[in-house]
Amino acid sequence: MNTQKNPNQAVADQIVESWAKGKPLLETTGKPSGYYRLTNYLRDYIATHNTLPTGIHTMPEGRDSNNNIEPSFPVNFDTIP
After folding, report:
1. pTM across the whole model
2. Interval 17-56: pLDDT, tens
3. How far apart are CA 5 and CA 68, in angstroms?
């Protein structure tokens, strides 16, 4: 198995898992609201900029599995361990 398949994905997953600690989980996914938006945002950011984000970034609005709008939210990448 090739562990270098997508290093951006592994880094993004680690950051999002750290961000998710202590946040309330949704019954439908078992993940906090915004989990998948943040994961996709990070993967795209890392691939585009070839670096990790710093400071505060606003995640875009999203839609849940019932097509309800989920609000945007800020993420401070300087405080994620």
Report:
1. 0.83
2. 999 999 999 888 899 989 999 999 999 999 899 999 999 9
3. 34
